[in-house]
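Ticket #4471: structure output looks truncated?

Reporter: J.K.
Steps to reproduce: submitted the chain below (166 residues) through the standard prediction queue, then opened the result file.
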Amino acid sequence: MDILTLGNELLRQKSRPVKKIDDHYKPLAEEMLEMLHRQKGVGLAGPQIGVPERIFVVHIQNDEPLVFINPSIIETSEEKSSYEEGCLSVPGVWADLIRPARVKVQAWNEKGRPFTIDADGILARVIQHEYDHLEGVLFIDHLSNAKKERLLTKYEKLSANKQENQ
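Returned output as attached by the reporter:
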């Protein structure tokens, strides 16, 4: 399992709904969580690993890991918050983003059980970030054109340096 990076067209495609949550999804979720931990991330979506389905995992330090299948954000707060975000698919760059401070999400877990969660703080932010991946949206898409261009330039330099050192 590899993490796809900026430039891979799968990251820009809208993910398809999971039709039936079967025995395939529990090991997939476990593998995604293992990858997330290896990469020291807090969230990972199916499209980031080449699985164009509506699934993502979240693991915030000191909380239980969560698996979201076919999630729907059903409510967002009017209150906004700013926080620096990065992405495993756009490694090495971060930017402050303003997002709703709280969200309410309905989804199914890897066992096919439905749940609803009211999230705030970092959990709300990570859920929104990973949900964006399911829609083919990257965090850099929320930036002004000028900020996005600066980040893309930095990312390209980092990528070029990484390739030279390999």
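Triage note (M.O.): checked the attachment and the full token line is present. The chain has a mean pLDDT of 95.
Status: closed, working as intended.
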